[in-house]
Amino acid sequence: MSVQPSVAPSTATDTQPTGRVVRRGMSILAMAIRTQPRAFAGAVAGSALYALMTVAAAFVLGRVTDAVIIPAFDEGRAATAALAAAAGAIIGVALLKAVGIVTRRAVAGYMQLRLQAIFRQRVSRQIHQLPLAWHRDHPTGELLSNAGADVQALFGPIAPLPFSVGALLLLILAAGALLVTDPLLAAVAFALGPLMAVANTAYNRATERPAARVQGMRGSLAEVAHESFDGALVVKTLGREAEEAERFREAAERLRDELVSLGRLRAMMSPVIEALPRIGTLAILLGGALRVAGGQLTEGEVVRFVYLFTLIAFPMSVIGYLFEELPSSVAGWDRLSPLLGAQPDPREVLTGADGDVRLPVAIGPLGLEAVNVSFGYPGAPVLQDVTLSIRPGSVTAITGATGAGKSTLISLLVRLADPAAGAIRLGDADLRAMPRRQLARDVAAVFQHTFLFDDSVRGNITLGEDFSDEDVVTACQLAQADKFIRSLPDGYDTVLGERGASLSGGQRQRIALARALVRRPRLLLLDDATSSVDPTVEAAILKSLREAAAGESTVVVVAYRSAALRLCDEVVYLDGGRVEDRGAHEALLGRCPAYAQLVTAYERASDYPPEAP
């Protein structure tokens, strides 16, 4: 079932006619109804029961006035049976009305929260499926606002929607009852409708742009907060706490000022909208008194008429509240639609709990081939005509000076981006033709900057997948992590805290490496993933990987240290985005001066402090 409204997106600062805002808002409400039809029907049923009982209450009050209250004043006493019947009728109607209210509120609230949950899940899935290049252009704070404030604003009108439908029914029933009671007074009452419509139209026109600006400023505030918290290490080490607090204060005050402006508009318009029904009630009482004096109406009919008139004013207020929420809803959709409308790679779209169709299990190392691969960012070419072939089961190093394109090449090999030209093949398949699930199963990458979750060591390694304790321990032993993990307070069950802040950089890297190894990838990519460990540990890791990978995995590692380079079957030297040379480490030292200079300079400049085992 589609859950996308047929509304065209617009920028948050567009000046749209009020009619267009209402039409787009109605499209959003229609989408919500299509998504949760049963909940909407249940909420409307409760609202309809409330409307029927409210109108019924008017007739009961009118009948009680004529049959019980007026005779009691005339005779000086009231019959017990009549009082009991009147009380029973009033209580019965009130109880049914209460059932309608509870049903409408409970089911409408469920509908609103359910829609928010559905769209938050949809936003989350879309964010995960979009390529890394898309994420570079969209700040994390903006995405957090999309999943939070924008979804909430989008479905702000949902809770009052069933009430408004019931209120519309109430309006129709009450208007019919007014006409039956007294057409002349009904004409006075109906004059209130156009005045309410004018007031609501003016409100929508006045609040449309401020509501859109508020949504945008909420996203900006979330972005500033995320940057400050995510960059806490930089903020603390450089003493930028006061500046970051000031930056957040400025964003918060801009949002506050906009909310105050929007609140002023509502404060100006709401009394006018609320005063109109009160003025109408006074006019009806005056006209009703004259009609009673002339004998055209009874006192009970006037009571019923005034009650029915208040019922007409009430639905108008409810419907007006619904229209008040539409500008914010449309603004929320305008901020969400670019995200939801972005087109992920079809191979990355998850189709269910298991993602793509199940693939046959394949074993053995993957060969790798890049043919005339070029890639760059706008105005900054990185790789140019890179061609290389890596045989299955080998251990290959990629090295080069900073900016040579090593990390970019690794990103292309794991398909975080696609080459602008050329092709990359894994085994017999073009990388771009492989389903995302197959790629994730066969290829694992570990990067220099690792991420650990606020979970146990075991949880960070398995990430919820079903691996045995033996598999986890074996992977940690290969990554040279088992020893220090067992020294932690709870061993493999030790909770590491957010981002693994309690561990050293080298320890975090080794857990990330174990995370990849436990999955037994056919191709393992290490992008400077051992840079934070000392040379002895790095050499031990590569040696164990070389022994374990034989016949099982192909390993490609970005490395600089000669101790690691010597353990590799082949070294690929990149310079200026091109493959300058390749071969065994000793051979390159002898025939490639630039390579020799890079390796020896790195060795001379390096000072490796001992790391905790």
Beta-strand fraction estimate:
5-15%
Largest sheet: 6 strands, mixed
Report the average pLDDT across residues: 77
Low-confidence runs: 1-15, 350-360, 608-613
Our count of helices gives 21
Strand order of the largest sheet: 6-7-8-3-9-10
Rg (C-alpha, Å): 35 Å
Q: Which class best fits the helix and strand makeup?
A: alpha/beta
Q: What coarse outline follows from CA principal-axis ratios?
A: elongated
Distance between the termini: 55 Å
Number of strands: 10
* Helix coverage percent: 55-70%
Structure characteristics:
alpha/beta, 613 residues, 21 helices, disordered C terminus, 63% helix, 6-stranded mixed sheet, disordered N terminus, 10 strands, 4-stranded antiparallel sheet
What does this structure look like?
By secondary structure, this protein is an alpha/beta fold. The chain has helices spanning 18-35, 37-75, 80-129, 132-136, 140-154, 160-181, 183-190, 192-230, 232-237, 241-293, 299-341, 406-413, 436-442, 457-462, 469-478, 482-486, 505-517, 535-549, 562-565, 585-591, 593-605; strands at residues 368-377, 380-390, 395-400, 421-426, 429-430, 443-447, 523-527, 554-558, 570-575, 578-583. The strands form two sheets. A six-stranded mixed β-sheet has the order 6-7-8-3-9-10, with helices on both faces. Strands 2-1-4-5 form a four-stranded antiparallel β-sheet, covered by helices on one side. The two termini are 55 Å apart.
